[in-house]
Amino acid sequence: MKKSNYLIAAFMLFVLLVSSCNKKADRVGIGLQPEEGQLMLVLNKDTGLETFSKHVDSVTAEDKSTSLIGGYYDATFGKTLASASFQITRVTTAENMPTLDQVDSLILVLPYGDEYFGSINQSITLRLYELLDDISLPEELEDADTTIYYSDTTFNVSSEELASYSFWPEPDSVVVIDSIDYDPHIRFPITNTAFIQRLLDEDADDDVDFIQEVLKGFYLTSDVPESADEGLLLGLDILGSAYMNLYFTSEEGSSAAKRYNVSSNLKCVNQYTHFDYADAAPQFIEQVMDGNEALGQEKFYVQGTAGIVGYIRLSGLDAWIESIRDKNIGVNDAALVLYAEDYEGLDLPKQLIILREDGEEVSVDVAKNEGGRFVFHLPELIQSIVQGELENVDLKIYVNSASLNPSRAVFYGGNADEMGAELRIIYTEI
Q: Which range has the top average pLDDT, 146-155, 247-256, 283-292, 351-360?
């Protein structure tokens, strides 16, 4: 017998022992045991399953109806700052307005709903700046089919803060103005007199779009807490919903307002920074930023908002496939089981997505959070690899809707005694 055959035989004997004796294979509630006539292969830390994480530079962040604004300091993942840059245009023209006598106020109205991450029972401070750059595609990319703006996009911003505003969000309440109920929103006062005067001086033109030559747009940001496991990321409905009113008294003594909208046909770019994870936990930094993949066998990570992607490497799969090369195999199920640590700060992701690293179009799966356990079912993928239709490449795990979802999870790697990552392949010899 050749040496390779000895290795294959030894591998199959070990797999059978693991499948029948490993306590993790009998974890309560998974319901992934072979039926009569079926066989099971368990890939784990002993039989060839590796876990680790890498940093993601950016996610697409253009023209989202909701924008996350705020800051959060996670003891494991470090600091996250969510901001947004957006355009605004004038709605009312000069010919429709009475003659202005005195400015009363300039108010930016920012609606928000019940989407937030962190504790809502705290104050959040918003800071507003003027954009100095146009938010528009370069001429050579104006006809491109792909989105050009990503979450790491930056624009030149005025160093002078236009306004700041602190408030306690109340997403379940209504705002009452003149006995009329409105959905929750922020009424952000802009009191910078020089800005208001420049807006008045340059906005005398009747062209509605002229305002974009005067005001490129706004940059809205917040503060990041200095204490771990504190902060709030709030979903604001900016694009298509936010607006600004310039309230004034006319020469006739009546009250009037000029309206500016953040129309849905304008640009709004969500921007995230994690400050190079300088404030993250040392083990996190060593694995994710310094590239020590071996640490992923203890714990590995996923995070939305251009954060972290988890990786699954099925290093033991090829040897098993080689051992069954002369057999016809039907994969009944292939369940990748992951357990996440409890965390009282940001919620665990509601859903995770798994994809192949090479981006090959295959049947992928979405795993829902079941009390901290996530199960991906990948029978079609494993069957295609067994049949030689696809190569065995790394799998990547993302937070679902990562461009607007800062949820994070710390998963137990393969080395965890009772909750280590594993892949259970239930198959039948045809």
A: 283-292
Rounded to an integer, what distance in angstroms lies between the CA atom of residue 202 and that of residue 215? 10
Q: Is residue 62 part of a domain?
A: no
What range does the domain containing 299 cover?
Answer: 3-57+281-429
Ramachandran category for residue 290: left, alpha or beta (phi over 0 → left; psi -120 to 50 → alpha): alpha
Task: Give CA–CA dist 84/80, Å, rounded.
Answer: 14
* Same domain, yes or no: 298 and 187: no
pLDDT tens for residues 33-82? 677 789 999 999 999 999 999 999 888 877 678 999 999 999 999 999 99
What is the amino acid identity at position 274?
H
**How long, in residues, is the chain?**
430
DSSP states along 242-302:
-EEEEEEEETTS-EEEEEEE--TTS-EEEEEE-GGGTTS-HHHIIIIIT--GGGGGTEEEE
- Distance, in Å, from the CA atom of 261 to the CA atom of 266, rounded to the nearest integer, reads 9
> Are the C-beta atoms of 94 and 282 separated by less than 8 Å?
no
Write out the DSSP string of 366-421.
Answer: EEE-BTTEEEEE-HHHHHHHHTTSS----EEEEETTTTT---EEEEE-TT-TTT--
In this structure, the answer to whether residues 76 and 128 fall within a common structural domain is yes
Asked whether residue 134 is domain-assigned, the answer is: yes
CATH of the domain at 301: 2.60.120
CA 43 to chain centre: 29
How many Cα atoms occupy the beta-carbon half-sphere of 385 within 13 Å? Answer: 24
CA angle 102–104–110, rounded 5-degree value: 140
Q: For residue 5, give the H/E element and its range.
A: helix 3-21
pLDDT in tens, 149-203: 888 888 999 999 999 999 999 988 888 888 888 889 999 999 998 888 888 776 5
